[in-house]
Amino acid sequence: MSEFDDATALTAHSDGTYSATLSDDWSIGDAVNGGLLMSLAAKAVSDAAADHHPHPLTFSAVFLSPGAPGAATVAPTVLRTGRSMSTAEVVVSQDGTERLRALVTMGDVSAQAEPIRKQTPMPVFAPIEECIAADNAPPSLAQAGLLKRFDLLMDPETVGWAMGQPSGDGEMRAWIRFADGHEADPVALLTFLDALPPVAFDLGAQGWVPTIEFTGYVRAVPAPGPLAVRLRTSTVTGNLLEEDAEIWDSTGRLVAQSRQLASARFPA
Amino acid sequence: MSEFDDATALTAHSDGTYSATLSDDWSIGDAVNGGLLMSLAAKAVSDAAADHHPHPLTFSAVFLSPGAPGAATVAPTVLRTGRSMSTAEVVVSQDGTERLRALVTMGDVSAQAEPIRKQTPMPVFAPIEECIAADNAPPSLAQAGLLKRFDLLMDPETVGWAMGQPSGDGEMRAWIRFADGHEADPVALLTFLDALPPVAFDLGAQGWVPTIEFTGYVRAVPAPGPLAVRLRTSTVTGNLLEEDAEIWDSTGRLVAQSRQLASARFPA
Fold first, then answer.
1. What percent of chain B is modeled with pLDDT above 90?
2. Does the CB of A58 have a partner CB in chain B at under 8 Å?
3. Contact A213 B103 (CB under 8 A)
4. Acyl-CoA thioesterase-like C-terminal domain: from which residue to which, for each copy (chains A, B) (predicted)?
5. Closest residue of A to B266, CA-based?
């Protein structure tokens, strides 16, 4: 069983809720990674929704409190079942405290993946063999189990921030895959959309960059192989920025996109 | 009272729900405009949430069935009240049938609007006096009350689609303001983010373009005057496209942004 399958394992109950276990293996700092929580939630919705709507086409989440290692409850509610899509809500909680609440559109991604009439072209990424492994956590981070779950290979042009020289452009590019070789599926793409360091670091921010709201769209089933992720931010006001993520698969196909509003601590 | 205030008037009840009335005046085709429903919902959340969190910083909605003229119930639930933000959920329904469900982050937009560290620059728009009024509905549309609520002035470079010559670029630019002179506030920006014709028309799509999911962020309180709206789409697969909207105020400040996943009928 892959690490991701293990981390997103669910036990169904007769009342429609599911039990899961969150682990430090997917934490960074004090919190279990939000992307992992989203994939866990989407997997429960997939189980609860109609069989012909297995994929999260859209996933919109708010994060109410950080996930901690330990037991969790995932409660999906299907609001509407249509012909090509179903709509659902899902809550992830621990000890009665909400961690995540999301609105989800389920469907069959492959039914809407062709033809490609227009597509955000994949930008130039440094070849994977020239990229820099991001598995060494800064000493300030006590917990960084998350970094061991991926091969995260940063484009050398976008790692200046890790050496104290943020470019100020607000862009990051990296190749990513699960460290144990597990291939990404549409549910896992939600984790990959939130797996890179915050793009705010490229603008000089430091410390925790909590996500206020996250909305991701899965646009295609990814081909096997590493995924190319680009993060960009365009508008930064006060302590708030939007972070746009795009993922291309090994064929150069755009497979997922997202935007999150995040809060960062910028230098004066 | 402005038309917008009239359309978003709410009566509070002791059980925490609100009554409202949806009108044909804000319909296009058979449905009351989704943006108007979102503003209505945000207004109820604003009333229910803490006084110092009056604005929708983020608004993420799914649309379950089209709004129709007549009575509506708006039911907000505050999930969490923090120091700088509150999180809420809100449902708009008619006769027990859900029209819209949304997750909302409330805060004080003006508290996070300075400094502007980075900002999507306003692109070149044709001067408002050279733009083309879009208040004439195509004859095929029986209902188009919505078009009378705005002065919607389309940039001549992005109206080819209305004359049967879509550019294929997937971009629209227009100036917009309420027809009765009412100035936009943060809640009204949600309506303006969804008030233009669908950008899919610029790719040759025709007919109804339903919104599957919409997430908007309000980034600043708009200055008085007309607003400049740009719509763009980048990835169109099968019948699905994302539509990105950006709104700049009369000072050139980016005041709102959104992305929606929509379904369109494209020519073969």
1. 90
2. yes
3. yes
4. 132-262
5. A117
